């Protein structure tokens, strides 16, 4: 799921303190959402915020939209596209893209068949698309809609050299640990607030006869997310920004400390479902579903990943908020981390229809449709809390919006794609190797630095 030139400035994703999220994820609290929800209807229908998104009539126009989305996520997004078709008269075709999407788009463009709009999952990918002269700046209507509905921080991460290219249609809070409440209950484990408390809860779960953690190591991006949360909390925001831009090397002592901390989970015998070999054969969706199947004897009691894990929990019989609960990633250092990611809509064909679709995706109307379907989080501040289908999702959404511009963006998403966003290469592969041999901290650092230096084109 991930590129950029090394000149892109660091972006901050959600908040570096967890006080807001800890309260937001207290499942017994009320949502307090009193906004009216609604999808609007017809051309230029009223949005949930009371504003109006004006779309042109596009009868006879055809559009292609590419994204690396599958399953329920793709199905739900197609409902958003269907409403756009209804309002404008255009015909929209979803094109399933392969990861890394920049390579996929390169093939399409070389063949003379680029999609009209692509959803890019990294700020670096936007920069790359601009550098290659693929991406087109957003038109005035899309920019106007974006300015009306997004904080300045979320607008800025879609800019390259001061021009607006991306609409962050989808966001992710990637600092959550989901747990099987029955397994936790049987073990007498409590929701931890610190890393040490997490290890204590894991030991209690282990002593009860259940493996503590499920890790989707077959997808290297999940491992980068583990690292980023530990590193942000332990090393702090300034070091995080420096490492994200490769201004410090991966051989830095702060990286050694983070990897050593990670090894307390990854290297602990029988703490990871299937062991390292099993984890490396487990893709992310399976890492979630195996945590919430098997009643009080699942393959693991906890799984780390973002709010989007709810889509996969939905594939089991477990209910979010009762069978499946969540707590913020515990504080490793002085403050708990919250790392965010997202997917931005970028126009590749500068047509009236493509610009209209970007305008639509920047509106609360579009985001509200997908919010109601679950497993989705929008940085659009005019999507009402009540649009989200359960208490957990409402609180995660409220916390995201309340954080405003104080956030850190996923580190690997800021890296050149060769390092931070390619299966079987760079950081993904290096952390997979580290999962297999967590004792070799120095070896992992050396490989990470070698691959980072090559990708960034500098020595640190």
From TrEMBL:
The UniProt keywords, alphabetically, are: Signal, Transport
Does the keyword field hold Lipid metabolism?
no
Q: Which domain of life is it from?
A: Bacteria
Query: Gene3D superfamilies this protein is in?
Result: Periplasmic binding protein-like II
Matching InterPro entries, A to Z?
Bact_solute-bd_prot1, SBP
Q: Which Pfam families match?
A: SBP_bac_1
Q: Where is the signal peptide?
A: 1-29
- Family, similarity comment: Belongs to the bacterial solute-binding protein 1 family.
What is the protein's given name? Sugar ABC transporter substrate-binding protein
Q: What organism is the protein native to? A: Streptomyces bungoensis
């Amino acid at each position: 799921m991930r590129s950029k030139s090394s000149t892109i400035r660091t972006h901050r994703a959600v908040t570096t303190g967890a006080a807001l999220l800890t309260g937001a994820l207290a499942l017994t609290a009320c949502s307090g959402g009193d906004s009216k929800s609604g999808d609007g209807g017809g051309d230029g229908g009223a949005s949930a915020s009371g504003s109006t998104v004006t779309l042109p009539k596009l009868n006879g126009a055809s559009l292609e939209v590419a994204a690396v989305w599958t399953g329920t996520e793709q199905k739900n997004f197609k409902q958003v596209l269907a409403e756009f078709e209804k309002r404008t008269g255009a015909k929209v075709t979803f094109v399933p893209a392969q990861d890394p999407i920049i390579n996929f788009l390169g093939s399409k463009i070389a063949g003379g068949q680029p999609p009209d709009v692509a959803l890019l999952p990294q700020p670096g990918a936007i920069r790359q698309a601009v550098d290659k002269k693929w991406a087109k700046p957003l038109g005035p209507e899309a920019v106007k809609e974006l300015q009306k509905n997004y904080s300045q921080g979320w607008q800025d991460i879609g800019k390259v050299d001061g021009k607006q290219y991306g609409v962050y249609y989808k966001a992710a809070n990637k600092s959550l640990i989901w747990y099987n409440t029955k397994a936790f209950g049987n073990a007498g484990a409590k929701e931890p607030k610190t890393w040490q408390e997490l290890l204590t809860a894991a030991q209690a779960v282990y002593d009860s006869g259940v493996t503590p953690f499920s890790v989707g190591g077959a997808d290297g991006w999940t491992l980068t997310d583990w690292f980023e949360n530990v590193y942000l909390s332990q090393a702090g925001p300034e070091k995080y920004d420096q490492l994200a831009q490769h201004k410090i090397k991966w051989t830095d002592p702060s990286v050694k400390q983070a990897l050593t901390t990670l090894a307390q989970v990854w290297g602990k015998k029988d703490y990871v479902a299937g062991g390292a070999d099993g984890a490396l054969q487990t893709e992310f969706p399976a890492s979630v579903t195996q945590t919430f199947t098997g009643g009080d004897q699942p393959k693991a009691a906890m799984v780390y990943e973002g709010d989007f894990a709810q889509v996969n929990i939905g594939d089991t019989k477990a209910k979010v908020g009762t069978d499946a609960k969540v707590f913020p990633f515990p504080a490793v250092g002085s403050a708990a981390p919250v790392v965010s990611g997202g997917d931005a809509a970028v126009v590749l064909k500068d047509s009236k229809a493509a610009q209209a679709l970007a305008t639509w995706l920047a509106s609360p109307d579009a985001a509200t449709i997908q919010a109601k379907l679950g497993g989705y989080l929008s940085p659009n501040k005019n999507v009402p809390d009540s649009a989200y289908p359960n208490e957990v999702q409402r609180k995660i959404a409220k916390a995201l919006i309340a954080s405003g511009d104080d956030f850190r963006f996923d580190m690997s998403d800021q890296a050149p794609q060769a390092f931070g966003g390619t299966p079987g290469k760079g950081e993904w592969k290096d952390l997979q190797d580290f999962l297999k041999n967590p004792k070799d901290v120095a070896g992992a650092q050396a490989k990470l630095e070698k691959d980072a230096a090559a990708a960034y084109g500098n020595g640190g």
